[in-house]
Amino acid sequence: MLAERVKKIKPSPTLAMDAKAKALKAQGLDIVNFGVGEPDFDTPEHVKEAAIKAIRDGFTKYTPVGGIDELKEAIVQKFKKDNNLEYTKEEILVSCGAKHSLYNIAQALYGPGDEVIIPSPYWVSYPDQVLLNDATPVFLKTYEEDSFMLRPDILESKITKKTKAIILNSPSNPTGLTYDKKTLQAIAEIALKRHLYIISDEIYEKLVYDGTEFISIASLGKEIKDRTIVVNGLSKSHAMTGWRIGYAAGPKDIIKAMTNIQSQSTSNPTSIAQKAAVAALTGPHDFISVMHAEFDKRRRFLVDGLNSIEGVRCLKPTGAFYAFPNVSKLYGKKTGARQINSSLDMAMYLLEDANVALVHGEAFGDDNYIRISYATSMENIKKGLERIREALSRLA
Ligand SMILES: *Cc1c(COP(=O)(O)O)cnc(C)c1O
């Protein structure tokens, strides 16, 4: 008999969609994959070299649980330089990916009876990590007309005596939208007044567009910094998804608890990947500008293309590498025996009829949308857009 907690969760729907697309591809079908959640760029050469050197030097043994000093120091410097945030090494924990950092937070903070507020649409792992730790996710709906930023008055109305924390993700996966300073200030005020922790997932920090300023909520003042745990990592900024390096920064007692938890599960993140992460954080940053420019170009092309399709409406994303178009105007329409009534119907139709893979919005908590990742070549984006246009024109 499996444990009760297993029944509460589902496998990551984004990874499941990706697997389905890859399976069709393996059968020989020409699939345009808009489902991916990772950069299509290669890890920078100097980062790979640092890892190879680490292997050659025999840096292949256990390290301190929470990461090597050299990497913690590089992270401290990164926060100072990029976010105007001062942390000490005792306030940093390096984990096996940002997802693992988030899981360590969930284990350290959430328990039976606790409520954790999750603005929706949300990244798929937040609710399940709350559930795995016997707490209750409380969803807070956000709206397209607010650029998917939460409304502070709705936030207030969701807070109870049991509310422990709120999870923020800006720039957001799946919406591609970024929080502005005014809204972050309003959230910080409420969090302080109601004694909430803020978990701030900043993994897409480096990917903001149209002159959007990235602001970490922790940088808004000493008080809010003491209530915030910032999560970040190398997966998206340096195309290092497979290396599994993420980190958290926050109050010493929470970081210590998370480190103890990590010491009883994974121990340290891979020694070699830690050396690679040092090179990524301290080395040349031109890689990020090249990737950023390419994402920006694709973003404009994709969003303009989507908005030119009848029945599709898409906000211009200001961050990450996703577009999140509203396709609900097409619900109720048919082609042949097939009727589209939901985002899953839409995703299945586009996969099976147009050979375009993407993720249904319902997986992120909003059935009116689909998520399209532009972490794929311009050529694929052009091809995929035309296929979507053609398939949707057949709906009546
Ligand atoms: C990709 C992603 C992560 C996880 O990153 P890893 O460091 O690879 O674990 C966390 N949060 C969001 C919103 C993401 O999209």
Question: How would you explain this protein's 3D organization?
Answer:
- The protein has 396 residues and is an alpha/beta fold.
- It has 13 helices and 14 strands.
- It has helices spanning 13-26, 45-56, 69-83, 98-109, 125-132, 152-158, 181-193, 222-225, 252-263, 271-282, 286-307, 343-354, 378-393; strands at 32-33, 92-95, 115-120, 136-141, 163-169, 197-201, 228-233, 246-249, 322-323, 334-335, 338-339, 356-357, 359-360, 370-373.
- A 7-stranded mixed sheet has the order 2-8-7-6-5-3-4, with helices on both faces. Strands 9-14-13 form a 3-stranded antiparallel sheet. It has a two-stranded parallel ribbon with strand order 1-12.
- Strand 3, helix 5 and strand 4 (136-141) form a beta-alpha-beta unit.
- The protein starts with 12 loop residues before the first helix and ends with a helix.
- The protein binds pyridoxal-5'-phosphate (PLP).
- Residues 37, 97-99, 123, 169, 173, 201, 203, 233, 235-236, 241, 246 line the site of pyridoxal-5'-phosphate (PLP).
